[in-house]
Amino acid sequence: xxxxxxxxxxxxxxxxxxxxxxxxxxxxxxxxxxxxxxxxxxxxxxxxxxxxxxxxxxxxxxxxxxxxxxxxxxxxxxxxxxxxxxxxxxxxxxxxxxxxxxxxxxxxxxxxxxxxxxxxxxxxxxxxxxxxxxxxxxxxxxxxxxxxxxxxxxxxxxxxxxxxxxxxxxxxxxxxxxxxxxxxxxxxxxxxxxxxxxxxxxxxxxxxxxxxxxxxxxxxxxxxxxxxxxxxxxxxxxxxxxxxxxxxxxxxxxxxxxxxxxxxxxxxxxxxxxxxxxxxxxxxxxxxxxxxxxxxxxxxxxxxxxxxxxxxxxxxxxxxxxxxxxxxxxxxxxxxxxxxxxxxxxxxxxxxxxxxxxxxxxxxxxxxxxxxxxxxxxxxxxxxxxxxxxxxxxxxxxxxxxxxxxxxxxxxxxxxxxxxxxxxxxxxxxxxxxxxxxxxxxxxxxxxxxxxxxxxxxxxxxxxxxxxxxxxxxxxxx
Length: 478
Known about the structure:
By secondary structure, this protein is an alpha+beta fold. Among the domains are: 2-163, PAS domain (Beta-Lactamase, 2-Layer Sandwich); 324-477, Heat Shock Protein 90, CATH 3.30.565. It is built from eleven helices and twelve strands. It has helices at residues 2-52, 56-64, 109-119, 158-206, 224-285, 293-314, 327-338, 362-382, 412-415, 433-443, 469-477; strands at 79-84, 89-92, 126-130, 133-142, 145-153, 324-325, 347-352, 358-361, 387-395, 398-405, 447-453, 456-464. A five-stranded antiparallel beta sheet has the order 2-1-5-4-3, with helices on both faces. A five-stranded mixed beta sheet has the order 7-9-10-12-11, covered by helices on one side.
């Protein structure tokens, strides 16, 4: 910004300098014309009487201004020519250039004189500019009428020379002023910009550093920039308070989630444990001869396996598999869903867009599709029969799995916790199906989202393909 202030100062000085130069040229030209007219009127009385009485010497003395007749004259100087009523030279201050009794028809001034004579009809003074000179033509009038003409020319390039002198002086003055203004402007601009630069750096650090560790010594004076700094400091404090509140809320949500998970795990484990304890107690109360060892051990075994399945579901892992997912794997899930009892009351629409194996673990993709498909069938069947649509397609570097149904919409309160373990909105559900699905999708580096409204519910999972796999697939399809 200081550089901008200096540039503006220099540009302003330049334009002011040019404007003064143009105006000075106009004023110099007008001053020279007035000077020539004034001098011509002063000479006209003497020269008019000299022409009337045919007194060449008097006319010559008047226009020559007392100069010695033999002196060499400068071609750039002004000159004066007196013409008689026939247009012949009566007298001049340059007798060698304008001989006595000669006509101007043989000189370059002939056409200029003719034009000015037309303008000077009625005794008016005419002006013209030619070859870098200012010309004034004044008719010499007496009682007998016009007896002649006085032609005066100013110095050659007089306006340009005087203008250059003025511009040179003005340029020196401008340079002197800029030598003072530029350092002062730079210092003032730097002082003005420094707080803004500091404030901009602090604002840039907000997205890079932790808010609680951010220290910004911004300017907080009483002017507008200081008020801006005060506003930024207040905003920073509010951001810190907001972040702290969010941290506390997040901790509370995590504790609540842990509590729900712990409660769900306790409930899921407590049920089979209670059954096993009851079986052991019954076994002990029965006489030795009436005890059924196989029945009791079978009940305990099934209870332990149920506990094992619950814990395994919470510790789900996506093991690395070498077998890629093929179109046949996807079609297998369709047959499994068609065999489900809920599918008999629902119209299942299946669209498998895969044409070649994909570099994704087959079992993981099958598990995702199976869980989402079973949930969709149960949701559609629970509303009295409906439809389920499953779309599988590859889009660029991703595999997209979309499962939708037109059953009852999921309440917003349930959508916020739909992927949490043991959270279910269906009677008899364990609340682990979507949890497992979510864990598999995340471990594959993908994303899953759900939308639900009056038109139906849709789960959409996006699974990224492995690096280099897309290029290989594209090459294989050619």
